[in-house]
Amino acid sequence: MNDFKKIDLEVDINIFVFIYQVIEIVKPSGCLFPDPLEEGISFDIYSAFIEPPPTLDTEMKGLDQEPGPEASQPEDDTSDTDPLVGFTIEDIKSVLDQVTDDILIGIQTEINEKLQIQEEAFNARIEKLKKA
């Protein structure tokens, strides 16, 4: 019976070692989305208490844009109004393009770093084989 427990424990340990060494954990994507452990929190609470304050670059971009005819109308703070009322389709498309570009650049740099590490490892192996 002890042999069975010992083998079972070794199998469990090997599974955990495999999980933590081979399977990649998703990294947070930055300030655009909440961290994985904070996903259970509603967005209102996250944005009010947890989210870091916006940088000066985003504030300056908002000030540089000219207010359109939609922005000159008084806004109501009721929950019945659509939050996208003051924006045009072009505004939304440009923001979505910007967000996807930021995400894709992050993914691309991460992939390039991993490929470079693998290339260096393969080159080291090739050099060892040449010396042998």
From TrEMBL:
PANTHER family: CILIARY-ASSOCIATED CALCIUM-BINDING COILED-COIL PROTEIN 1 (PTHR28457:SF3), COILED-COIL DOMAIN-CONTAINING PROTEIN 189 (PTHR28457). This is Ciliary associated calcium binding coiled-coil 1. It comes from the Eukaryota. Residues 54-84 are annotated as: Disordered. It comes from Diceros bicornis minor (South-central black rhinoceros). InterPro entries: CLAMP. The lineage of its organism: Eukaryota, Metazoa, Chordata, Craniata, Vertebrata.
